[in-house]
Design goal:
By secondary structure, the chain is mostly helical. It has one domain (13-182). The protein is 69% helix and 0% strand. It is built from seven helices and no strands. Helix 2 crosses helix 3, helix 2 (47-55) packs antiparallel against helix 7 and helix 4 runs antiparallel to helix 6 (144-164).
Length: 207
């Protein structure tokens, strides 16, 4: 009696691993969008920056504004994820090149975390490197070894994001996020204008 040949089926572990990867991917993209909204709210990234990235043929070029969106935004999101993982003592986020362990070993101060975020978003562009902390910490104001450590972490994080950006569907998914951020930024501007008009009307009514 001839028995039908069963098609190769994946193991349960393979299916579970695939589901985990999909969840990680979606969580990563959600964190990109959330961080993007924070940067828009802080006026770090402007609607014109997002539009410029969207029109660009390739975000891996020498344009600081375009890089701030295509590279800086994901790097900033990754940095905050790593810092949260370190501060909460979580081992759930494992990086292949141990950049998380490097950050943990360096033991960044809050002002240095802020400096690192500026570096991964804007690079060393002096137009933007004004020191985001109250102490105004910058690369020139700290020890040269410390500065080199921070720059090294920044370069490794940028390398990670560049590698991830080569994955299938990344470009399409990230474009969707940028479009959502443009809509969010424009809606925010319209809301601010409406609030401003209401304030003017109240002043006029009180006169």
């Amino acid at each position: 009696m001839l028995m039908p040949r069963l098609a190769h089926s994946r193991s349960v572990n393979e299916v579970i691993q695939e589901v985990k990867m999909v969840r990680i991917w979606e969580n990563m993209m959600r964190s990109y969008e959330m961080k993007g909204k924070q940067l828009v709210d802080a006026n770090v990234i402007k609607p014109r920056d997002l539009c410029q990235w969207l029109r660009g043929k390739n975000y891996e070029n020498n344009n600081e504004v375009v890089n701030a969106v295509g590279i800086g935004l994901p790097c900033s999101s990754l940095l905050h994820t790593l810092l949260h993982s370190i501060k909460t003592g979580s081992d759930s986020l494992l990086m292949q090149d141990n950049v998380e362990e490097q950050i943990r070993a360096v033991g960044l101060e809050e002002s240095e975390e802020c400096l690192l975020e500026e570096l991964v978003i804007f690079g060393r562009n002096p137009e933007h490197m004004n020191g985001c902390s109250e102490d105004g910490v910058n690369l020139k104001s700290i020890d040269s070894l410390r500065a080199a450590q921070i720059q090294g972490i920044g370069r490794r994080m940028i390398g990670i994001v560049r590698s991830v950006s080569k994955l299938p569907t990344y470009r399409r998914r990230f474009r969707q996020i940028v479009k959502a951020l443009i809509a969010y930024a424009l809606e925010r501007e319209v809301s601010a204008q409406c609030n401003s008009m209401r304030s003017i009307n109240h002043v006029v009514d009180d006169v």
